[in-house]
Design a protein that fits this description.
334 residues; alpha/beta; eleven-stranded mixed sheet; four-stranded parallel sheet; globular
């Protein structure tokens, strides 16, 4: 199979609809990361996503719809605070979990009685979803546990020859996956942190909590696996208080003839002295650049030495969630 990377225009959108209607898979741009989409009503199509990614069968997917789609056809019991949040932040990088009406394939939610729904703001995603006019089940368009894709080329690197079409919308502006918010209770609860922060949600809804996963509990949301978003190279991980140890690790790798790189916030280490992949100076920059830097690191480095940023709260909750999971470290936020 030949994989085509095309802009979303009349011809490519028609091709995308034909692929989806036939039970196939189309990768498409969103404002967060690229998605790997299939018809959410079709069991075989949804199962093919899991098979293609190598995704665990208990890791739910998100149903993506266009901004004019009637979400009430898919879910029940939308609380007033969720309606307010939808008016404030959708279309945008917020996924909302509701009781499911059971209309989509049972494989989308992996047997749970809930459904995660997202309305992306990306123009490419919107015209694609309008063209097919049905919910598209989509995880990030990368091999399971690999770094999420923020360009069409990243998708191609993982799936060339395995999917027919990638709808190219350029580099993703957000850079980390959407916030996933459980809207089934009286108080909204963040299952996965992202660009729509706890503070932003609480401002509209009055309160917001972080979900704490119990040992052995099934994932209620994508991205809750322990090690996720991992680069395909050797890695080492240090907190910002362990900077001397990080430098020692870097120099030891260099002394063995290796090619180490640091992954850290802007200005922490001199690029004149060390090979540095800078994440930027603020949380929004770090969110936007994280996956691109991880992909760059796996291409260049024999050892990627990560130094955890000190900042906490807001968008940094989502950044740290991805940052630590990429290196196999637990987080407290989700």
């Amino acid at each position: 199979m030949k994989t085509h990377i095309l802009s979303a225009d009349g011809e490519s959108l028609l091709q995308a609809k034909q692929i989806i209607d036939a039970g196939g898979i189309v990768a498409f741009h969103t404002e967060t990361v690229y998605g790997l989409g299939a018809n959410a009503f079709c069991d075989e199509a949804v199962q093919s996503i899991f098979a293609l990614k190598g995704r665990p069968a208990d890791n739910p997917l998100i149903a993506h719809v266009h901004k004019d789609y009637d979400v009430g056809k898919l879910v029940d019991k939308i609380p007033p605070y969720a309606e307010k949040l939808a008016r404030a932040y959708l279309p945008g990088p917020l996924t909302m979990v509701y009781p499911s009406k059971g209309k989509v394939s049972r494989f989308v939610s992996c047997g749970l009685d809930t459904l995660a729904v997202r309305v992306p703001s990306s123009e490419t995603a919107q015209v694609f979803l309008k063209e097919v006019d049905l919910p598209i089940a989509a995880p990030s368009a990368n091999r399971s546990r690999h770094v999420s894709p923020v360009t069409a080329r990243h998708v191609y690197d993982d799936f060339a020859g395995d999917i027919p079409l990638i709808l190219d919308g350029g580099a993703c502006s957000g850079g980390i996956e959407s916030t996933v918010l459980d809207c089934t209770g009286e108080i909204p609860m963040i299952l996965r942190a992202g660009l729509v922060t706890r503070e932003m949600i609480a401002e509209i809804a009055g309160d917001c909590l972080f979900y704490e996963k119990c040992a052995g509990e099934r994932p209620k949301s994508p991205g809750m696996a322990y090690k996720h978003y991992a680069p395909g190279c050797r890695t080492a991980y240090f907190t910002s208080d362990e900077l001397q140890n990080a430098v020692r690790c870097y120099l030891e790798e260099e002394g063995r003839g290796g090619l180490p790189y640091f992954l850290c916030r802007e200005g922490l280490l001199s690029s004149a002295e060390y090979r540095v992949l800078s994440l930027g100076a603020c949380a929004e920059d770090m969110a936007r650049t994280l996956y691109a830097r991880l992909r760059e690191g796996e291409r260049k480095a024999t050892l990627l030495v990560a130094i955890e940023p000190k900042e906490r709260g807001g968008v940094m909750d989502g950044v740290l969630n991805r940052f630590t999971r990429a290196f196999g470290r637990e987080t407290d936020e989700t």
